[in-house]
Amino acid sequence: MWLLYAVGSAFFAGVTSILAKCGIRKTDSTVATAVRTIVILIFSWVIVGIVGSADEISLIDARTLVFLILSGAATGASWLCYFKALQTGDINKVVPIDKSSTVLTILLALIFLQEGISIPKAAAVIVIAAGIFLMIEKKDVEIKDSRGGAGWILYAAGSAVFASLTAILGKVGISGVESNLGTAIRTCVVLVMAWLMVGIRKKQQEVRQIPKIELIFICCSGIATGASWLCYYRALQEGPASIVAPVDKLSVLVTVVFSYFVFGEKLSRKAAAGLVLLTAGTIAMAAL
């Protein structure tokens, strides 16, 4: 059953990227992240109410709570980086780099969670890494954008690093708490972090200036993210992080397909070959 939850997480995560891209064409990415987190927070606590796990808050021990908070902080950092990268880069380039967190997650799971890695699994990791490498064009590797700020590829890389930390910290943090409740608690942390960044950057006034159509897309992306999270952390609770994380990363297929039809973004032959390797390695990882 956990594998089905992981697949559901991948689908909703792929849809999230498309909806988010539509919602940040004019809206600042940090502001959009803060707004959509409100939607996710409401979504997650409604689910907690439905499953009736709210009363378990008092049973959460200090260690679990600390890891949930750390996982939420890592998620917030990953989101801020990811949506900044989406705003300035092509979605079918940003997403593969973000999905490179798969490789790092597997390595961290091996080190900190003692999840073993066999020779076939190691081979699958190499195939995934090769696929990601092929999807990154030489011209994409720019450390600065046209305005002299950090280039989108740096934000995408930062998103990948924090996403891998999210998976590991989340796996530890939900070991002693109902998955939906854990997701809701983490979302509270993300909300605080996102709005704190809005305050630091003095972007509060821009919230009222968000175009209505973009606000709709931002809210829809929040709903999709909430659904992805609920599936993902339920899968993490029941299955190994070294397999759940790769399956979740298949969302890149959903994103690439939708980016072609919605934004007209096409993959080069090299990038397409990389996508095939990335997919094949991920499927092999899930099957091992």
TrEMBL record:
Residues 2-136, 152-285 form the EamA domain. The keyword Transmembrane applies. Coiled coil: none annotated. Keywords: Membrane, Transmembrane, Transmembrane helix. One of its GO terms (cellular component) is membrane. The keyword Membrane applies. Pfam families: EamA. It comes from the Bacteria. InterPro entries: EamA_dom, EmrE-like. The chain crosses the membrane at residues 30-52, 64-86, 106-136, 148-169, 181-201, 213-235, 241-263, 270-287. PANTHER family: ACYL-MALONYL CONDENSING ENZYME-RELATED (PTHR22911), SOLUTE CARRIER FAMILY 35 MEMBER G2-RELATED (PTHR22911:SF137). Belongs to the EamA transporter family. This is Multidrug DMT transporter permease.
